[in-house]
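WARN no homologs supplied; continuing
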Amino acid sequence: MIRKGGIGVIKRIVTAVLVLSVLLSFSGCTASQQTAKPLRICLDMAFTGNAKYSGEMLCEELKVFLEDDARAFSGVGRVEIELIPKKGEERTAVIDRIRTEIENGGGPDLFLISNATQDTIGENALFPFPEQAMAKGTFLSLDEYIKNAEFTDWNKLYSVILNAGKTEQGQMIVPLSYTLPVTCFKQSEVQHTPSATLTWADMVDDETWIMQASALWLRSRSRFYPQWEDTYLEYILGESVDFEKGELLFEEEELTGVLRDLVKLCNAETRGKFDALPAHYQVSMNVRYRMRSVGIDVLYDGIDFDTPLTMVPLYSTDGGVTATVVSFAAVNANTKHAQAAFQVLDLLLCRPMQMHSELYQSFLGDLGMPMHTNLVLDGEAIRTYKGERSMPEASSDAYRSVLNEITHVRFRNALEAHFDALYKAFYAQGMRSGLDDADRLKELVAEGYEEMQEAVKAAAE
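OK structure emitted
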């Protein structure tokens, strides 16, 4: 049930009637100004195309959103929101300070994190390995709060995505948005039934070239690396890290095999093997999925918005589909405002917010899909800064068939930079030697593998 005050907040969000707050300046009030301790929210955002928002504007809107109905958050006299700087020494200093606060039993109450760009992942992130932060007890289990949620029907959120934020202690991280790569063809020209039993090897061995073209996301004519700052090797390797043990779950030989496959596919493309394929385009699923493409020569030829689609996902070596959490929220295990922090999260995830609020859209950016199962699909439009976006019914069925075969959901983490660097080096060497210089290629993989092992072990300490 949504209480009266909550309905008022949602209506104001839906109608976009946001009034500037006079309660706080951007830096927040001092403790002496009010008796109750503030609710501290840490915001780390990547703005991937929405020029309307600066970080400061989003902070101000979030303050207004929360403080306009302050009675909803019992025990909280005010709200303090800290935006982590986008890059540079200032960002590093803020992250170091917050980490020190957490280690000393303090820190922000609620974290709202977007990992949509290179500025906010890996060593640049507040949590370089979110799964490891969960394992270390950095975050509060939200299970009891979810049972008594007032705004969001948590049964209507994608459970397979939510499960990525669970440990034996419960729901520690709540994904706010997610993505996965698909290659789209006309249903009238290509048929494919996604399956959790299909593997990377099946894609590479496909003699029709449809699956091979769908496997080649690191396009040779695309400067040899993803255009969307997303490392597709981790989609291929699937569940690649045991964060409790601090170990990689793939061997050097498996990694070498995948890299060889990719170089061979790039060679096939340069020889024109994919030129005669039906029209298709590739996209990391997001609310503007018809606006961006990773394909080079084949974009939307003959594929208009209402064309029923066949979607071919990128299968992993173990089988099935891997999805990626783009943005997430977590409550600090040290918090003194657990209920209030969860209420903010609960309200942020409710259907009206996901459907209409530009505040929630900021967490989707250009790289995410909403968590509510009934949004975007079947023409159920949500508002974005580029207008309303939805997916036709015929294509929605194809997308659901992909979602049903998800076998692993990952968070963006510090390994991505290692995968990206290794692929570039392997590709360059492979193109020069034609994959014949086995000793040098083996040396490159060994070096990259060792660096990844060290990164994972360091995170586990």
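Residues 42 and 82 are 5 Å apart (CA to CA).
OK
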